[in-house]
DNA sequence: CCTTTCACATGACATATGTCATATGAAAAG
DNA sequence: CTTTTCATATGACATATGTCATGTGAAAGG
C-alpha cells in the first residue's frame, strides 16, 4: 500500500517514514511537514493512506481530513497525535478518519493500524475510548473568544476594542468563564481551558 | 557501540531505537521512558552513549547528565530536544554533554552525531549556535519564583502566604517582572517568560 | 571606610479585574 | 401565542492587580 507521512517534527517524520518503508507491504511515497503540503501531495500521488499529525503549521491534520472528505477522496486518514482530547477525536470521527493513534503508543501499533485501516477497518488507541466520557466544553463561543485573547496577554480593554464590545462585557465573559471552570482568576481559567483543549 | 534511548514519547522512542539498531555499528541495548529509568539503565548496562530527551517525567535529561558527570561515568550523552533554549543548551554544556540535536533535524543527523561523539567529537545542531546570542534571563530568583506561581493560577494573596511575604511584596515582584519583560500584565509576562524558557 | 549597586521587602495609591443585577432578542418548549 | 431558556450585552460596585516611593542589608569597588 502507498502511504504518505505528514508530521511537522523532522526527526519523527523521518524515523516513521524509514521504518514503515522497511515493511514489505508498505511503501512511503511522500512526506509532508505541514497540512498544505500533505493535501497537495495526496492529490498529486493518490496514496491509499495518510499518517497525519494534528498540530501542524499552515493547516491542521483535521482540516486536511475534512477537505479530503469533502472531495470524496479515496485516501484514508490515520491521525497520529500527542493529545487525547475529546474535541479532536470527535472532529476526526466526523471527518471520516479511520484511525486515531496517540504518539505515546508503541511503534508496532502504527503498522498494525495501517493494515487494519487499509483492509477497511478502523483503528483507535484504547486510551481514546475514555475520551467519550470527557466533559464537553462548557464555554460559549464568545467566552472562548475572549478567553483566548486574554491568554495572549491582552487586557480587558484591548479585547473590548478588538471585538467591538464594552470593557464591562468583556469582563463579564471572563467572569462567567472563571465561574464555569471553577477557577480562581483568569490565569487559572486559561490553564484549565488549555488543559482540556477548550480554546479553539 | 552500545546505546540507550531515553525519550518519553513512545512512538518516537520505538522508532529511533528500531532505526538505530538497524545500523551495523550501533546496538540499542536499552530504552527508558523517564530520567530515573535512564539513569538506572546506564548504571546497569554501561553503554557507550545515551540519546536523551530533556523534558521527561521523574527526572529531566539534564538532571541525568549532571548526575553522570558527578559520577564521572564513561557514558557520553547526546541530548535530543524540541526546544532551542539558551538555558537548556548552556546547562547541557556545563554538564559535559557531547551532542545537542533538535527534534526538528533530519533523522540522518542522529546517526552521524552518535558516530562523531563516539569518536570523541562533539555534535551540535547548527540552529543551536544562535542560542549563544540569546538574551539571558533578566528576572531575579524571587521574580521567577513568584511568576511561576502566578502562572499556576494563584492570586497574589495565595503566593504571599506560600512564600511568607506580604501581598504588596508579591505584587511588586510581579510588577518588576512585567516591566523587565515589557509586558502588558502578568499574563503577558508569563507568556514571554515561558517562550524564552525563563521559568526554570 | 565609604560609596555604589542590587536583590529583597513593604505600604499607599491608581487602575484593572471579577461579580452581580439587569436587559434584550432569538430559539426551543409548552 | 405564550413561556422558558440561553447567548449576548451593559454598568455599578467590591476586590485584586500594577506602580511607585521608600527602606534594608549584603557584596563589590573605590
Automatic annotation (TrEMBL), chains A, B:
Among CDD domains, the record links this protein to: LuxR_C_like, REC_DesR-like
Q: Which residues form the Response regulatory domain?
A: 2-118
**SMART domains from the UniProt entry:** HTH_LUXR, REC
Gene3D superfamilies named in the record: 3.40.50.2300
- Give the 4-aspartylphosphate positions (modified residues): 53
The UniProt record lists the keyword Transcription regulation: yes
The HTH luxR-type domain covers 132-197
Annotated GO molecular function terms are: DNA binding
- What this protein is called in its record is LuxR family two component transcriptional regulator
Source organism per UniProt: Paenibacillus taihuensis
Amino acid at each position: 500500500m502507498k502511504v504518505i507521512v505528514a508530521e511537522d517534527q523532522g526527526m519523527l517524520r523521518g524515523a516513521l517514514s524509514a521504518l514503515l518503508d522497511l515493511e514489505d507491504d508498505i511503501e512511503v511515497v511522500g512526506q509532508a511537514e505541514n497540512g498544505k503540503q500533505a493535501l497537495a501531495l495526496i492529490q498529486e500521488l493518490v496514496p491509499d493512506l495518510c499518517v497525519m499529525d494534528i498540530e501542524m503549521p499552515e493547516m491542521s491534520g483535521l482540516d486536511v481530513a475534512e477537505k479530503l472528505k469533502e472531495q470524496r477522496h479515496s485516501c484514508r486518514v490515520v491521525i497520529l497525535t500527542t493529545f487525547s482530547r475529546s474535541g479532536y477525536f470527535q472532529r476526526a470521527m466526523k471527518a471520516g478518519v479511520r484511525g486515531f493513534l496517540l504518539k505515546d503508543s508503541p511503534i508496532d501499533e502504527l503498522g498494525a493500524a495501517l493494515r487494519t485501516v487499509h483492509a477497511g477497518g478502523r483503528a483507535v488507541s484504547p486510551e481514546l475510548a475514555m475520551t467519550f466520557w470527557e466533559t464537553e466544553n462548557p464555554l460559549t463561543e464568545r467566552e472562548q473568544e475572549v478567553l483566548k485573547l486574554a491568554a495572549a496577554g491582552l487586557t480587558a480593554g484591548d479585547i473590548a476594542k478588538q471585538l467591538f464590545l464594552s470593557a464591562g462585557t468583556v469582563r463579564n465573559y471572563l467572569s462567567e468563564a472563571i465561574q464555569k471552570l471553577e477557577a480562581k482568576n483568569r490565569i487559572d481559567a486559561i490553564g484549565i481551558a488549555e488543559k482540556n483543549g477548550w480554546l479553539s
